Amino acid sequence: MSEPKRPADPHHPHQTTERSARGLDLALAERLLERSGEGMLAFDGDLRCLYWNPMMERLTGMKAADVVGQHLPTLFPFLSEIGEDALLIRAAAGEEVSSSHRPFAIPGTGRRGFFDAGYGPLDRGGAQAGGIGTVRDVTASLRASELLVETESRFRHMADDAPVLLWMADTDGLCTFFNQTWLSFTGRSQAEEWGVGWAAGIHFEDFQRCMDTYLEAFGRRQRFEMEYRLRRHDGEFRWLLDRGAPRYTPDGTFSGYIGSCIDITERKALEADLRRAVEARDEFLSVASHELKTPLTSLQLQIAAFSRQIDRRPIEALREGRLHAGGKALSDQTKRLADLIEVLLDVSRINSGRLRFEYAEVDLLEVLQDAMERWRAAAEAAGSAITLDEAPTTAGWIGTWERRRLDQIADNLLSNAIKYGAGRPIRLVVAASDRSVRFAVVDEGIGVSVNDQARIFQRFERAVSSRNYGGLGLGLWITNEVVTSLGGAVRLTSQPGVGSTFEVELPRVPPAATMRI
Ligand code: ADP
Q1: Is 490 left (phi over 0), alpha (psi -120 to 50) or beta?
Q2: pLDDT category, 9, cuts 50, 70, 90?
Q3: How many other CB atoms are found less than 10 A from the CB of residue 344?
Q4: Which atom of ligand 1 is nearest to the CA of 477?
Q5: How many other β-carbons are positioned within 10 Å of the β-carbon of residue 219?
Q6: Mean pLDDT taken over the chain
Q7: Can you tell me whether residue 26 is helix, strand or coil?
């Protein structure tokens, strides 16, 4: 049951309290208006100012005493210029209206900026008496958000123009931004890459490692670095180096990650090449020292045996021919050592571009016949016979070369044919034309796979294991360097298990020799 309403009695004490409370309310309202952080004003139906609170004074720099009673659009012409006076009129007519981000300019004070305002009707004793308004200066916040938009767009421009692939992730680890460089690289849209979409492009072999690194660093809010292959727009996987770092707002709150990636595919290939070169060099050093040590050891043994024979029974040794045989063995070993050292010297000559030729008339057929003689015994020991096929020519076999270098080419190719020839026959084929000569060393040995055929002409490169075949991996490289320096070319045709043909073509007069003549 509700309490019966108390009759309105002008003498009732409550009314006295109410009246004084009303007085209090007005005083309070006055105080509040004065202290309000918002500008407040009131105006009559003719837009004359009725009230102008201290905040309005502060906003405009105009005192209430100078404004109250004045026609607002006259005092502030910008009101008409921006059409704000129409809103004041509508408010005075009883409407609630508002405006935002309106520009203002106060005459005399030079103040300008932007304001938000709300207007409503003012009624006095039930009659329409004008309007009231609340005004807020939004210049600073507008500038701040404009600045933010500007900073943001500047960042996007920079990011999109950057030569690196950029990404950003939110606090949950999901990616929310990829720059244009990234999108052009993957050929995908921002929406496709969004969240974890980008991870679809990672090579499956790198995927797990990548995710582990990312999530672990993310959990600990740590910087990270990882390398992975990402599919490029053309389908090719490229190696990226991705560096991620946590982002924080100015107040220190974690706001996600930012990362940048560079394409390191070429660098990785270069690194691999370098690593291979260093390995090859190390292998070469160990093989070279082994190759030098072997003849040196047997030389030492032979010298010891030789001097023993001379010490003990020199006459018998001489008579039995042992001194002679020993002397020959000594000179053979010394030659082997000298040849090896010559090879090493050639390496440094070629490396420093100091390969020079003493040009003279040389008979190629003679070179090949002599080489065949030099290697006949070794070939027979390996079970191979060497034959020479010479194509008929009217041009002869003479050219302008250097004898020692032609011997070296023939020695390299013949010794290889014996070493890798599997004890099968070896053929030397020679042919000549007016301008050039060609000769080939043909064996029926182990052959060279297509994959290795170009590589074996490079320094230290070998297609066999050093356990099965001794060698420095330099013969073909030196041969090729010498032949090309003479203006010629070396060609290989080979099939594993069937045999190899190394063909050398030389111009009769090398271009460098012509220049000298
Ligand atoms: P080396 O014989 O000292 O290793 P080379 O530069 O002369 O160095 O040869 C390089 C490599 O080429 C050899 O290790 C071998 O794998 C391959 N090779 C050269 N000649 C032949 C050949 N006639 N048959 C098969 N493989 C060969």
Answers
A1: beta
A2: very low
A3: 16
A4: 6
A5: 9
A6: 89
A7: helix
Count the neighbouring beta carbons within 10 Å of the beta carbon of residue 470. Answer: 12
Q: Identify the pLDDT of residue 22.
A: 61
Structure tokens at 9: 């009695």
List pLDDT tens digits, range 413-465.
999 999 999 999 999 999 999 999 999 999 999 999 999 999 999 988 899 99
124, containing H or E segment: strand 112-124
Cβ of 378 less than 6 Å from ligand 1: no
Cα(214)–Cα(226) distance, integer angstroms:
8
Q: Quick check: helix, strand or coil at residue 421?
A: coil
State residue 22 phi and psi, 5-degree precision: -60, -45
Using alpha carbons, select from 487, 382, 491 the residue that is nearest to residue 442. Answer: 491
Ligand 1 neighbourhood includes 417 CB (under 6 angstroms): yes
Beta strand extents in 138-280 (DSSP E only): 165-169, 175-178, 224-231, 237-248, 254-263
Q: Give the bridge partners for 128, in sequence order.
A: 123
pLDDT at 24: 64
Bridge partners (DSSP) of residue 243 are 225, 260
What phi and psi values does residue 43 have, to the nearest 5 degrees? -150, 155
User: From ligand 1's centre to the CA of 456, what distance in Å?
Assistant: 7
**Pick the residue with more confidence: 400 or 15?**
400
What are the pLDDT digits (tens) for 386-397? 999 999 999 999
Spatial distance between the Cα atoms of 218 and 32, rounded to a whole number of angstroms: 51
**Residue 469 has what DSSP assignment?**
S
For ligand 1, say whether the CB of 472 is within 6 Å of any of its atoms: yes
Question: Cα dist. 3→6, 17, 63, 175, 480 in Å?
Answer: 9, 21, 52, 64, 119
Residues 6+ apart with CB under 8 A from 413: 441, 479, 502, 504
User: Which runs of consecutive H residues, i.e. helices, occur in 52-165?
Assistant: 54-60, 64-67, 72-75, 78-81, 84-92, 139-161
**CA–CA distance, 357 with 393 (Å, rounded to integer):** 27
Selection from 453, 249, 416 nearest residue 461 by Cα:
453
Q: 478: CA distance to ligand 1 center in Å? A: 12
Q: Which residues contact 412 (CB under 8 A, 6 or more apart)?
A: 475, 476, 478, 479
Per-residue pLDDT tens digits for 245-290: 999 988 999 999 999 999 999 999 999 989 988 887 787 788 778 8
Task: Tell me the three-class secondary structure of 291-342, residue by residue.
Answer: HHHHHHHHHHHHHHHHHHHHHHCHHHHHHCCHHHHHHHHHHHHHHHHHHHHH
Please check the confidence at residue 36 and state whether its pLDDT lies above 80: yes
Three state DSSP letters for 430-448: EEECCCEEEEEEEECCCCC
Q: How far is the CA of 424 from the centre of ligand 1 (A)?
A: 16
